[in-house]
Amino acid sequence: MAATIRDVARASGVHVSTVSRTFSAPHLVNAETRNRVLAVAEDLGYRPNRAARALTTGRTHNIGLIVADISNPFFPPLIKAAQAHARTRDYHVFVADTDEDPQVEEELIQTLAKQVDGVLLCSPRLSNRVIERLHAEVPFVVVNRRVKGMPTILMDVGQGARLAIEHLTGLGHRRIALLSGPSGSWTSGEMRAAAAAMDGVELVILGPNAPTERGGLAVAEEVIASGVTGVLAYNDLVAIGLIEGLYERGVRVPDDISVVGVDDIVAGRLNRPKLTSVAMPTAAAGRMAVDLLLQSFDEGATPTLATLDTHLVVRESTDRAALFPRG
Prior knowledge:
The strands form two sheets. The chain has a six-stranded parallel sheet, sandwiched between helices. Strands 7-6-8-9-10-12 form a six-stranded mixed sheet, with helices on both faces. It has three domains: 5-57, 434 Repressor (Amino-terminal Domain) (Orthogonal Bundle), CATH 1.10.260.40; 62-155 and 281-309, Rossmann fold (3-Layer(aba) Sandwich); 157-280, Response regulator (Rossmann fold, 3-Layer(aba) Sandwich), CATH 3.40.50. The radius of gyration is 24 Å and the shape is elongated. The protein is an alpha/beta fold. The protein has helices at 5-12, 16-24, 31-44, 50-57, 75-88, 102-112, 128-134, 157-170, 186-196, 213-226, 236-248, 266-270, 282-296, and strands spanning 62-67, 92-97, 118-122, 140-143, 152-155, 175-179, 202-206, 230-233, 258-263, 276-279, 305-308, 311-313. 44% of the residues lie in helices and 17% in strands. The N and C termini lie far apart (79 Å). Pfam families: LacI (PF00356), Peripla_BP_1 (PF00532).
């Protein structure tokens, strides 16, 4: 016969309620006791009945994770890290993709709210006003968007933009294009504010742009016409598309124009030239988002704002400014 919760309690030398808490609220159980109970449960082959536990605790032990575009290589490391970390806390993750559509995002939140204990909302396209309204239906942790009164994780793209601009100006670039992302993007706003505050830079804003290779290809003609010698792109996909669009028009990277991306995705490291990029702590953000969401379930928990550092990885797509820049 299958092991029961009473079998685990008896073999562990603890009360049944302690075994229950070990699986439903592990942070409330002493680490030594929790590890002993989990080891005994593993030896006995005990698996808690999730449906019964949900009726008892009012918790599904499911988390929703909503991303703007699952095909964007920025998101999979965050998703994998969140899923793996949630499993260690006995939670399952449902992943949903909005395809950059705020209406789809709202519909997904309303649907998931009936099936999960909370939602991780990553790079949302909804307005803050709508997010605040939906928060009444389900707890949120928001990644890469400031929303008042909610647990929030920010990857410091402002810091990354400053590092990228400093790198370009250090190579002699003075007229620099910032390729923004989708309209209303928090990341674009942070990058623009950081770059605009820097001295010695003539900043050219081009966008909004689709956050894809096609977006980079489409803006290549504008970049050439702008007379810039350096570019900071919204993300690596836009940067990769831009480099292809420049080469199609006879403009070499980095000989004629230097290009910096954001995210440090694998494709950028394999591209030719290898892409200089602002590395984003996506896996760390995924793990922390799970922790903040579970903490938010505690009565009286104070919403936490966490900011994770970014850093610049210099590769082949940037070099010294040409003596006689195009334009």
